[in-house]
Amino acid sequence: MLIQLSHIQRLYRSDEVETTALQDIELGIGHGEFVAIMGPSGCGKSTLLNILGTIDRPTAGSYRFGGEELTHLKEAALAKFRRENLGYIFQSFNLIDELTIEENIELALIYRTIPKSERRSRVAHAMDRVGIAHRARHYPSQLSGGQQQRAAIARAIVGQPRLILADEPTGNLDTENGTQVMDILQTLNDEGATIIMVTHSPSHADLAKRRVDMLDGQIVISVRNAI
Amino acid sequence: MIASIFRSVLRQTRRHPLYVGLNIFGLALGIGVFLTLTLLVRYEYSFNAGFTDADRLARMDERWSMPGTTPYESADVSFRAVPFFKQDFPEIEEVVTFTKTNLYVQKNGQFTHFAGQTTDPAFFRMLSLRFLHGNPATALTRPDGLVLSQRTAMTLFGKYDVLGKIVEINRSGQKTIQVVTGILAAPPSPGLLDDVDMLLPVTPQERLTRSCFRFWGSSCGEILLKFRRPEDIASVNARLFDFVNTRAAGPADDDVSLGPAPTKTYTLSIVPILKMHFHDVNVEDTDNSVEQYVIDSIGLIGLLALILGCANAVNLATARAGLRAREVALRKTLGAPRHVLFGQFMGEAMVVSLVAGLCGLAFCEAFTPAIASITGEAIRVDYGFIGLLLPLVIISSGLASGVYPALVLSGYQPAAILAATRMPAGGRRAALLRNGLVVGQFSIAICIVICTLVIDRQTSFMRNADRGYVRSGLLIGQQMHSQDIGLQRRMMDTLRAIPGVTSVTLGELEPNPHSLTRTTFLHEGSKGRIKVQMLRDRVSSDYRDTYQPHLLAGRWFDAEHGQDDGPSNEEFENGNGNWNVIINSKAARAFGFEKADDAVGKILRTDAKHFTIIGVIEDIRFSSPRESISPEILFFSSLQRIAFDNPVPAVRFSGVTRMLMAERLDRAWRTLLPDVASHFAPADELMETYYSGDERRGNLFTLGAVAALLIACLGLYGLAAFAAARRVHEIGIRKTLGATAGQTLVLLLQDFLKPVFVACFMACPVSWLLMRQWLNGFDERIALSPALFLLAIGGAALIATCTVLGQTLHLARAEPARALRAE
Ligand SMILES: Nc1ncnc2c1ncn2[C@@H]1O[C@H](COP(=O)(O)OP(=O)(O)OP(=O)(O)O)[C@@H](O)[C@H]1O
Ligand SMILES: [Mg+2]
Questions:
Q1: Which among B383, B277, B415, B423 has a CA at the least distance from the CA of B725?
Q2: A11-15, B297-301, B413-417 — which is least confidently predicted?
Q3: What digits encode the pLDDT tens for the residues B222-239?
Q4: CA distance B668 to B661
Q5: Which residue ranges does UniProt annotate as crossing the membrane (chain B) (predicted)?
Q6: Please, is A128 exposed, middle or buried when counting C-beta atoms within 10 Å of its C-beta (0-12, 13-18, 19+)?
Q7: At B603, is the secondary structure helix, strand, or coil?
C-alpha cells in the first residue's frame, strides 16, 4: 500500500457552527493506482485531497504514506515530504500571476537542490509533454483556461512525483481540452505515477482504474473499474 | 455628490480600518510636524521684523584683521565714530549707542540680577517703541531716568504703573539712584529687546571717561543706526572704507587713532537688523543667533515630513485601489463615465486630507509647547497664520495624494478586472511607483537619522572634549572690578582660608571671558620676522594648581624668579624691560616653532619690551567651540608688586559638595565686596550658552528623525499589510509545492526590505555631504566615521524589519489549505 488512511476525521469550527467535512475515512491506495473521487458539492472531496496532500491536517486519525506516519510530522518535514513526493493540480490552476509560465513550473523545483541547468531542461521537457512550450515566456493572464490548466499539470509533473493529486482538473475546461488533460493523466499513470483525481464528470471517472464515491464526509462506495 | 463621497469614505473606513487609519494617521503626522516646524521657522525669520521701519534700521560692526589671527567681526565697537556718522553721511537719520551692562538690585542683602542696556534718549524714537506708561521722547533725557520692561516692573513692584518710583541700581559695586520714567510695552517681535530688563541713559561722565568713547581701538557696545531710505544702507556701507581712512587715521604713536593706515587692520560694516539673527553667528559679542541653514534645514524637515505623509497616502491609496477594482469595473459596466469616477476618488482623497489636516492641527497643538521648551524659543500656535496655511496644506496634500490613485482607479478596464481571478495590483508600473515611494521615504528618514547621530556625537564631543584645563572640582567667581593689589591679596587669602579649598588663583581671562585684550608680538627667528596678535592673560601663583593646564614644554612661573613677575599695565604701555612669559601651543605654532620645546628660551618683542618664553601650555578653550583658539600669552603676577586688572578668582576644592563650596565662597566674597553680587560657578555653567544652542537644535533633529521614521514605517507597514493580503494565495501555492516557512519568510522579508536597503545607499552620500558642511563650522570636530552610517542603516533596517515582521511571520506560517481558499 502506498497510502493508508484510517479513521480520518476533519472538523471545522467557526464561531458556533461545527462542520464535519470528513468523518471516519478508511482508504487504502496502492502503487500505480488511478483513483477518481466523486460526490456532490460540499461532501468533502477537496478536504480529503488537501489532507492527502498534507496541506491540511486531519482533526483525528492516521495517515501513512509508504508506511510512514505523517500526521505527527512538523511543518518543515511536511514541506520536504511535499516537494519530494507530490504533484498538485488545482481546480483553479493556482498559477502565480507575477511569474511567467516557465517560472511557475520551475517553482516546483527551486525548493530542491537541483542545478539551474537541469531545472531548465526538466521544465522544458514538462512543457513539451503538455504542449505549451511555445507559451513559456507568457504570463498566466495571457493564456486560455485550457492552457493554464496544462501549465498547472506541467508544474505538477516536473518534479516526477510518486503521487499526483488533481482537484477537478477538467472542471473549467471544454470537452476537447478535458479529454486532452485526461490523456495526459492516463499517460502519467501508465508511466507509474499514482493519481488521485476529484471529478464531477462520470465519463472522466470511468477512465480511472478505481472510483470512490463520497457523501457527507464519508466514503459510501469504492469500486474497481473493469478495464 | 458630496454626500456620496462622505458615505464612500465612511464605508471604506469600516471595511478597511487599517489602511484608512494608517493613511490618515501618516498624513496627519506629516501635517502636524510640518505646521509645527513652519511655526518655528517663521519665528526665527521674524527676528526684528516687527519693529517699525525695520528695513531702515541697522547695526555698525567692526571687522578686525590682525596679523597672525583669523579676521573676526565684532558687534561691540568703539563709539569714537558716533559723532562723525551724521556729519559724514546725510543718509543717516539717527545714531544711538546700545551697551549691555549687568545691573543688580540689592534687597535685604540679596542681589537680583537684571540685564541692562545703556543707550541714548533717541533710542525709543528710532525704534518707534510703545510705552505702557511714561513718555518715550523724554524718558532718558534726565541722567537718572530708568525704563523698565513689563516683566521687570512686575518683578520689582508687582504692578505696571510705577512711574516715579525710585530704584537703587548697583553696577558691580557702583551704586546710583534712578527714577522710573517709563514702562516699555512688550516688543513687537523677538530680537533686539529680548531679555532686556532695564534701559538707562549713558551718563555724561561715562561719555568723557570711558575708553570706548575716546579711542578707536577700544570697544564696549553696539551702535544702532536708522537710515532715511532702505537703499541708503548699501550706499553708506560702500563708503565706510574711506570713512575709516579719513576719520580713524593718525600718527603712529597716537592712542586715539589707529595709525596712518587704519584700514589695514580695521573696517566697519553695516548689518541690517533684519539680517542680524542669522548674520550674528559669525560675529563676536552677540548671542541669540542661529545659522540660517540650520533653520532652513529644520523647515526642510517639516516639508519632507509633509511629503512623506503624502507619499504614504499615495502608496496606500494605489495599493487599496486594487481592493476597489471590482467596484469600479461594475460601475463602469453600469455606465459611469470616467470623469465622474475620477471626481469621486479625488473627492475622497480631499475628505481624507481634510480629516488628516484637522488631526494634524491637533498634533501641532501638542508639539508646539514641546518644541518651544526644547528650543527655548517663544513660539506658539498662531491661528491667524495657521488659518491661512492649513487650508492650503489640506488642498495641496489632497491633490498630491489623490491625483495618481484617482487616475489609476478611474482608468481600470472593466473587462480585464471582471475576468481576472484576483484583485489587480495595478501592474508593474504601480508596483514600481510604490517601491519608489518607499525608497524615497526611507532615504529621507535615514538621511535625517544620520544627521541626528552626527549632531549628537558632535555636541557631546564638544562638551566632553579636553579644554586644556580640569573642569571638575573647579569654581570660578565674578570679575572683581578692582586694580587694588591689597584687596586682591585679601581676596586670595580669604578664599584660601575656607575649608575645602585646595588652591586659589586670579586670572584676567575666565571661561566665557568678560573682556579680551590683544597685542601684536614679534619674533625674529630662523623663519624671519613673524608677527602674531596674541590674547593677553595674567595669572597668579597657584594658577597651575587651580586650572591645572597641561605644560607641554619648559617650566611654570615661579615667584622666586624676579623676571617672571610682570610687567604691570603701566610698564607694558610705556616702559621697556625683560620679562618671562608662557604661551599656548597655538601661539608657538603661529610663530613657526615646530615643537613646543623649540619655543622655550626664545624671545618675543613688542616695541622696546622683550619677553622670554619659559613654557608652552596646551591650548585652553575659554571661548565658543565654533571659534578657533587664539594665540595666547600669559604674564605672571605674584601679587607682591603688580596688581591685576579686573581679575577673576578661581578655586579648586575637594572633599566638599559643589553647592556647599559655592555657598561658602559667596559668603567669603561678601565679607570683602558686600556691594558686588557673587556667584561662584563651574566652568560648564559659564560656557553653557556655547553648547546649548547646538544641543537644542540637535534635539529638534531627533524629533524630526523620529517623525520621519515613524511616517516611513507607517507606509511600509501599510504596504506590507497590503502585499501580505495580496500574496496569501501565492504563498499557499509555494508552500503546497514544498516551500518551508523559513524559506517563505526569507522571500517575503527580502521583498519588503529591498526598498529600504536601496534607500540606505541613497541616503549615505547626501547626509555625508550635509554633515561635512555642518562640521566645518566647528574648530574641533569629530570625524565622519562610517560607524555612524552603519548604525543608522542598521537601526533603520531593524525598525523596518520589526514593522513588517508580524505580517510576514503570519503569512509565512499560514496553513496552505486555508491560504488557497482565501480569495
Ligand atoms: N475552512 C473551512 N471552514 C469551515 N468549513 C469548511 C472549510 N473548508 C471546507 N468547509 C466545509 O467542509 C465541507 C467540505 O468542503 P469541501 O471543500 O471539501 O467540499 P467539496 O466536496 O470539495 O465541494 P465542491 O465539489 O463544491 O468543491 C463543506 O461543507 C464546507 O463548507
Ligand atoms: Mg472542491
A1: B423
A2: B413-417
A3: 999 999 999 999 999 999
A4: 11
A5: 20-41, 298-319, 340-363, 383-410, 431-455, 700-724, 745-770, 782-805
A6: exposed
A7: strand
User: Model-level pTM greater than 0.90?
Assistant: no
Give the per-residue pLDDT at B413: 66
Average pLDDT value for chain A: 88
For residue B427, with 0-12 CB atoms within 10 Å meaning exposed, 13-18 middle and 19 or more buried, which class applies?
Answer: exposed
Q: With pLDDT > 90 as the criterion, what percentage of chain B qualifies?
A: 36
Of B420, B730, B736, the CB nearest to A55: B736
Residue B293 vs residues B298, B681, B698, B766: alpha-carbon distances, Å: 8, 34, 14, 16
Which H helix or E strand runs over B215?
none
B816 touches chain A (CB under 8 A): yes
Q: Would you give the DSSP letter of residue A226? A: P
Residue among A220, A217, A219, A225 nearest A42 (CA): A217
Ligand 1 and A17: CB distance under 6 A: no
CATH of domain A32-58+86-224: 3.40.50.300
With an 8 Å Cβ cutoff, are A79 and B739 in contact?
Answer: yes
Local confidence band at B428 (pLDDT 50, 70, 90 cut-offs): low
Per-residue pLDDT tens digits for B362-409? 999 998 998 888 877 788 888 889 999 999 999 999 998 888 888 877
- B427: confidence class by pLDDT, cuts 50, 70, 90: low
Interface membership of A19 toward B (CB under 8 Å): no
User: What pLDDT is attached to residue A5?
Assistant: 94
Q: Which position has the higher pLDDT, A179 or A172?
A: A179
Following DSSP, what letter does each residue of A130-153 receive, concatenated? HT-GGGTTS-GGGS-HHHHHHHHH
Angle at B225 between CA B224 and CA B227, to 5 degrees: 160
Among A82, A97, A89, A39, residue whose Cα is nearest residue B738: A82
CA distance B575 to B23: 80
**Is residue B335 scored above 70 in pLDDT?**
no
Using most ligand atoms within 8 A of CB, pick from A11, A46, A167 the residue to mutate for ligand 1. Answer: A46
Q: How far apart are CA B394 and CA A174, in angstroms?
A: 55
Location of C-alpha cell 546700545: B98
Type of residue at B652: R
CA distances from B711 to B25, B443, B717 (A): 9, 12, 10
pLDDT value for B572:
84
Provide the residue ranges of all domains of chain A, joining segments of one domain with +: 32-58+86-224
**Chain A from 45 to 84: CB within 8 A of any B CB:** 50, 53, 55-57, 75-76, 79-80, 82-84
Which residue's alpha carbon is nearest to atom 19 within ligand 1? A42
Q: Does A100 touch chain B (CB under 8 A)?
A: no
Decide if A92 touches B, using CB distance below 8 A.
Answer: yes
Q: Which among B591, B639, B635, B641 has a CA at the least distance from the CA of B614?
A: B635
Q: What grid cell was written down for A102?
A: 516557465
| Strand ranges inside B567-608, DSSP E | 577-584, 603-606
Is ipTM > 0.95 here?
no
With bands split at pLDDT 50, 70 and 90, how would you rate the model's confidence at B201?
very high
Cα of A196 to ligand 2 centre, how many Å? Answer: 13
Q: Which pLDDT does position B823 carry in this prediction?
A: 46
Least CB–CB distance from A83: residue in B738, B816, B820: B738
Higher pLDDT, B38 or B325: B38
In this predicted model, what pLDDT tens digit does every residue of A80-123 receive, in sequence order? 888 888 888 887 777 877 788 998 898 888 778 888 899 999 99
